[in-house]
Design goal:
316 residues, alpha/beta
């Protein structure tokens, strides 16, 4: 059997909008994130191995991803891996995909799907935390979904932050790197969208500064002890997650406030399927005056939906 190998070019050809549409179609088709298989974590010498299975009636798949914290210092990617896509009925392999490239497209697409339903069509000020592949991917995904007037890039490395800001300017957007203490973290005070795409284990900014009505998206952490946003933001926000089960198992952004008594599981306002379909959620959000907070930890069904779309898109 000659198994098709779908690399970064094939995955990028789907594009941010194609990936977002694939995720939305899966949820509108009845996929329930709450019943999706859980991610398995295995500690290995180089870091952590993540095994992420998922299935629908048409396709089944599994991503094996490596998280290697020391790789960037070696000039290597932090995220590695492969995705095996199979026919659901026969379990015969359909394709093998570049897992790192798939993650780079999928994660921003999940965020962009939430943004599609949480924000208006024009964003006056986007504050983007992070300067790695996910930051670039999120920038592309947001620009595919929304008109953005101004961007502030906040990163620990000023040169990398300026490089990303320059990249944004070349797309025609007014963008600059954050300046001053915290490299511009205080810019969230005028933001209507904040994207957190970092490896930080501690909060990136003071959540009390985020304006009412703004949207904050955090994607960088998926362990109970790490978080990118503080308790102040979570306590005053309407909270949407991919699934309640996954968030309450892995999202330190929520689990730490929960342990502090400032937040409860019942305070999660909805999951991504409820947001997309409008089931029991949009009315609640329309009357809410505080910020909206979307927390993503990454789930196997998302990889499967995007991988299947890549496979269809690459078919001759």
């Amino acid at each position: 059997m000659n198994l098709p190998l779908l690399g970064a070019d094939d995955i990028e050809a789907l594009g941010p909008t194609g990936a977002v549409d694939a995720l939305e179609s899966a949820l509108r088709g009845g996929l329930d994130p709450e019943t999706a298989p859980a991610r398995h974590h295995v500690t290995v010498p180089g870091g952590e191995l993540l095994i992420m299975p998922a299935t629908t009636r048409q396709v089944t798949g599994v991503k094996i991803a490596g998280v290697a914290p020391d790789n960037p210092a070696r000039g290597l990617p932090r995220i590695t891996g492969s995705y095996l896509l199979l026919d659901a009925a026969t379990l015969l392999p359909l394709a093998l995909l570049d897992g790192a490239a798939l993650t780079t497209l999928r994660t921003p697409a999940v965020s962009a799907l939430a943004i599609r339903h949480l924000t208006g069509p024009v964003l006056r000020h986007l504050v983007l935390f992070g300067t790695g592949p996910q930051a670039y991917g999120h920038l592309a995904a947001v620009l595919a979904e929304r008109q953005v007037e101004r961007i502030t890039v906040v990163g620990r490395n000023p040169h990398r932050a300026e490089a990303l800001a320059g990249h944004a300017r070349r797309t025609g957007v007014d963008a600059r790197a954050g300046q001053g203490q915290g490299h511009g973290a205080g810019e969230v005070a005028t933001a209507d969208l904040v994207l957190c795409c970092t490896t930080s284990a501690t909060p990136l900014f003071d959540g009390s500064l985020v304006p009412d009505g703004a949207t904050v998206v955090a994607v960088g952490s998926h362990t109970p002890g790490a978080r990118e946003v503080d308790t102040a933001l979570v306590a005053r926000s309407a909270v949407v997650v991919e699934s309640r089960a996954a968030a309450l198992a892995e999202a330190g952004d929520l689990l730490i406030p929960l342990a502090e008594g400032a937040f409860g599981a019942e305070d999660i306002d909805g999951n991504l399927a409820e947001l997309v379909t409008g089931r029991d959620l949009r009315g609640k959000l329309s009357g809410f005056e505080g910020p909206r907070f979307f927390k993503s930890v990454g789930m196997g069904w998302e990889d499967l939906a995007v991988a299947a779309a890549v496979h269809r898109n690459s078919a001759p």
